[in-house]
Amino acid sequence: MDWIVQQLWLIPVVPLVAAAVSALLKQRQRRLSAFLAVGSMILALALSCAALVNAVGHSDTSSTARQVVNFFWFQAGDPQAAGTALRLGWVLDPLSAVMLVMVSLVGLLIFIYSLGYMAHDDNFARFFCFLSLFASAMFGLVISNSLLLLFMCWEIVGLTSYLLIGFWYHKPSAAAAAKKAFITTRVGDLALLLGMVWLHSKTGTLLFYDGGHGCLEHSALASLVAQTTSLGMAVSTGIGLLIFCGAIGKSGQVPLHVWLPDAMEGPTPVSALIHAATMVAAGVFLVARVYPLMAAQPGGVASTPGALQVVAWVGAITAIFAASIAVAQTDIKRILAYSTVSQLGFMMLGLGAGGVAVGMFHLITHAFFKALLFLGAGSVIHGCHDEQDIRRMGGLRKLMPVTFATYAVGMLALSGFPLMFSGFWSKEEILHSAHVWNAPGPFYLGVAAALLTALYMTRQVCYVFLGPVRSSGREAVLPGPVNREGERLREPKHPRNPERIRARGDARRPIKELGKHTRAKGHQGGCYEAHESPWVMTIPLLVLSAFSVLLGFLGTPAWPWFQGFLGGERAARNLGKLFEGEVLRLMLLSSAVVFAGLGLGWWLYGRKPVRSADEADVLESLQPEVFALLKRKYFLDEIYEVSVIRFNAWWARICAWLDEWVWDGMVQLLSLVVVGLAWLNRYFDEYVVNSGFDAGCRRLTEGGTLMSRLQCGRVQRYLRLLGVALTVLVLFLIWGCRAS
Amino acid sequence: MTPLTSYLLLSALLFAIGLAGALTRRSAILVLIGIELMLNAANLNFIAFWRYGPNPQALTGMIFVIFSIGVAAAEAAVGLALIISVYRHCRTTNLDKIDSMRG
After folding, report:
1. Tell me, what's the pLDDT at A165?
2. Whether A32 contacts A146, CB under 8 Å
3. CA–CA gap between residue A163 and residue A155 (Å, rounded)
4. Residue A574, φ and ψ in degrees, nearest 5
5. Distance from CA of B54 to the nearest CA of A (A)
6. Are A162 and A155 in contact (CB under 8 A)?
7. Do B96 and A712 touch (CB under 8 A)?
8. Shortest CA gap B28–chain A (Å)
9. H or E element: which one contains A90?
10. Ramachandran angles phi, psi of A114, nearest 5°
11. Any residues with CB less than 8 A from the CB of A299 and at least 6 apart, and which?
12. Which residues on chain A are in Cβ contact (under 8 Å) with B95?
C-alpha cells in the first residue's frame, strides 16, 4: 500500500476533474454530471481507504507514522537566499487519513442523497459541479503539507461555500446570506494570512514537515518559542492566535459565528456537507494541524500555552452560547445550525484542553451524526413540502418512519446518550480533559452546554415527530385541485412571518414537486399528506445512522484505538479502565446531565403535546424576556448592525464623499488643464501651421481654374487658333527671309 | 502670268473657301466638306506642279494624287462614321453644342 503515498494527489484531483468536466456540460445533461460527481467520490473514497490502510500499517511508532512528499513549486528571488524557494507538498499521517475517509464517506452519502433531493432542480449539473469542486478543495486542504497550499484550498472551500449558499441566488435572502458568509469568514482569513506571513518571515518555510526543517518541527519551534513580542508573548503564541482567528471565522466560533445560521439558506445537502460535517470542521482541523505550534512552550514552564488557553475558552463560550440560542429557535435547520456551532465549540474545547485526539474524535463522530441530522431534516422538509417551521410540523413519527428512526439515532448521538451512541464517548472525552484542565470554567460551561444540547434536541424531536399533525389545519382551507399553485396561494396568509417566507427558501423545486406528489397520492380533502422520502434519500440516512452508533466504540476509554492511532501508539484493550474512579465518576455525571436534559425536554414539550402551531412555546410563557433574548440570538446581529455595519457604511459614505470631491476634483482639475492645453495646441496648428499651406493650395487651385478656361471644348475655335498661329508663323518666316 | 501661277491662284482660292467653310460652318458635315475642299486644293497643286515641272513625262504626280484621293475617300468614310457616332451620342451635329471636353 506504499504507492498511495506518492499518488495521494489523485484524491483531490479526481473530483476536480469531475467538476471541470461537468462545468462544461450543458445543464440538461443531468445523468452524466451526477455520474461524474458520484463516480469521482467513489474513486476518492477507495483511494482514501487505501490511504487509511497505509496509515494504520505505519502507525505503530510515531516516527514512521508521518509520510511526506514535497515538491518544488517556483523560485521567488535570489536562489542563494534562504526562504525564497517555494515548496508545496502533501502529507499522509493518521490525522489526514482519518479526515480523508470521513470527508469522502460523508461526501459520497450526501452526493447520493442530493440525487434525490435536487432531482427537480433546473441547475442540477451546476450543483454537482460545485459539490465536486468543494470535495476537491476539501481533500486538498486535508492532505496539504504546506500552510500556503492549505490556505489556497481553504479559500476555494470558502468560495464553494459562497456559491452553494447562494445557489438559489434569485432569492434575496440567499444572496445576502452568501455574501454574509463570505465576508465574515474573510475577517478570520485576513488574520490567518497575517499569521502565515509572520510564520514565513520567522522560519523561512511554510511546509509543516520537511525532514526536520518544517515549521512544525523541533528546530523551528524552538526558535519561535525563544523569541518574544510585545507583552512578553512568545512568537509562536502570537502566530498560533492569528491562525486560530482563521479557524474562528471558518468554524463559526464566537464572535464570527453569525454567518453559519444564515448559511442554511442553501440547499439542505449543502448545509449537511459543508456547513455541518466538513467545511466548518476545517477550522478545527487547522488547529489540530498546527497543534505543535500552539502547544510549543519554552522548556521548564509548566502552565498551559497561551494559545491553547484561548482556544479552550473560546470553544467553551461558543458551546454554551450557541446551545442556549438553539433552545429558542423555530426553524428546523437553524436549530441544527446553532447546534453545529455549539458542537464546534466543544471540538475547540477538546483541542485546547485535551489535545488533537480528543478534538478530532468529536469532529469525526459529529460529522456523521450531524450529517445524519441535516439529511433527516432535509427529508422532513422534502416530505412536508418545504415546511421548515417546527411549529407547523408534528406527528411525523408515523408518516415518515425511516426518517424518524434515523433522526432519533442522530438526536441521541448528538445529545450524548450513554454507552450506545458515538456522541457520548466523544463528548465524554472532551469533558474529561476539560475536567483535569487547569481552569474549572470551561468544564462547567461544557456541562451546561451538554445539558442544553439534550434539551433543545428533545424539544425539536417533540415538535417535529410527536404530537398531532399540525400542518393540516392551515392546508385544509385550500381547495384540492389547485395544489400546483398551492405554495403561492398560501403565501399571503403569513405575511407577518418573515421566517416563514424565508423558509420558502427551498421552494423552487417543491412547487413543481407539489403537483407530482399530490397527483401520485391521489389525496383528498385538500390537505398535504407528509410522505416518506424516496430510497435514494433514506439509504444514506441508514448508513449514516449505523456509523453514528458504531464509530463511538473506536474511542471508548476501554479501547482508545482512535486516540492511540492519532497519537502514534498502540492502544490496549482494558475494560477495567471504564470502572476507574475518575472515569466512572465523569461518565456518571455526563449521563446524569444528558438524562436531565432529555427529561427536562420531555417534561416541557413531550408530556403535553403541542396542539396548534400558534400556541406559545412553553419556555416563552414561563420566561418571556429570556426567551425573546434567546430567540433574537442575544441581539448579536443587531449589535453588529449598529456597530460594525453602521460604522462601515458611515466610513463608506466618507470615502464616497472624498472620492467625489477630493480625488475626483483633482482629476477634474487635471483634465481641465489638459483640455485647455489641447485647445491652445489646436489653434496654433490651425492658424499658424496650416494657414500657409492652405493659402498655397488655394492659389494653385485658382491657377488651375484659370488655365482650364482655355480648354473650351469647341473644335472650330482650336482650328481657328491653329490657323491664326500658322499665319503668324508664316508671316514671321517670310519677314525673316526678307530681313536676311 | 504663266499657266502655273493661275493654277496656283485657283488652288489657293479653293483652299481659302475650304478653310472658311471648315472654320465657320456649324454643321459637322459642312465642316467635313470644307476639309475635303482643302484636300482637293492640295491635289490641284500636285497636278499643276507635276504638269509644269521639270519632268512631265513621268507619272509620279498623277500616281501621288490618285493615292491622295483614295486616302481622302477613306478619311471621309471615317469622318462620316465619327459624325454618325457623335450624333447618336449627342442627338445633334451642331459643333457649338458639342463642347463636353471644356475645361
Report:
1. 94
2. no
3. 12
4. -155, 90
5. 26
6. no
7. no
8. 10
9. strand A85-92
10. -65, -30
11. none
12. 714-716
Write the burial class of residue A273 (CB in 10 Å: 0-12 exposed, 13-18 middle, 19+ buried): buried
Give Cα separations from A197 to A193, A203, A209 (angstroms). Answer: 6, 10, 17
Q: How many CB atoms within 10 Å of residue A120?
A: 14
> pLDDT digits over A682-728, tens only?
999 888 888 888 889 999 999 999 888 888 878 888 888 888 999 99
Cβ–Cβ under 8 Å, residues B37 and B25: no
Distance from CA of A726 to the nearest CA of B (A): 13
Q: How far apart are CA A87 and CA A148, in angstroms?
A: 9
Q: What is the distance between the alpha carbons of residues A365 and A317, in angstroms, rounded to a whole number?
A: 21
Judged by a CB distance cut-off of 8 A, whether residue A706 touches chain B is no
Judge if the upstream peptide bond of residue A255 is cis by omega within 30 degrees of 0.
yes
First-last CA distance in chain A:
130
With cell 407547523, the residue in question is A392
Residue A492 has pLDDT above 50, yes or no: no
Q: How far apart are CA A366 and CA A416, in angstroms?
A: 11
Report yes or no: A133 and A124 within 8 Å, Cβ to Cβ. Answer: no
In whole angstroms, what is the distance from residue A732 CA to residue A348 CA? 127
ipTM > 0.85 for the complex: no
pLDDT of residue A302: 60
User: Does B19 touch chain A if contact means CB atoms closer than 8 Å?
Assistant: yes
CA distance A701 to A699: 5
CB distance A429 to A361 below 8 Å = yes
Per the CB < 8 A criterion, the answer to whether A568 and A62 are in contact is yes
Model confidence band, residue A243 (pLDDT cutoffs 50, 70, 90): very high
Question: How far apart, in whole angstroms, are the C-alpha atoms of residue A186 and residue A142?
Answer: 20
Instruction: Quickly count helices (H) and strands (E) in chain A.
Output: 34, 2
Q: pTM for this one? A: 0.74
- Report yes or no: A106 and A271 within 8 Å, Cβ to Cβ: no
Contact A196, A188 (CB under 8 A): no
Q: Do A715 and B96 touch (CB under 8 A)?
A: no
CA–CA separation, A323 and A317 (whole Å): 10
Using a CB-CB cut-off of 8 Å, the residues of chain B touching A720 are 23
Q: What backbone phi and psi angles, to 5 degrees, belong to A84?
A: -100, -20
B31 Cβ under 8 Å from any chain A Cβ: yes
Average pLDDT over all residues of chain A: 84
Dihedral Cα A331, A332, A338, A340, nearest 10 deg:
-160
Rg value, chain B, Cα: 17
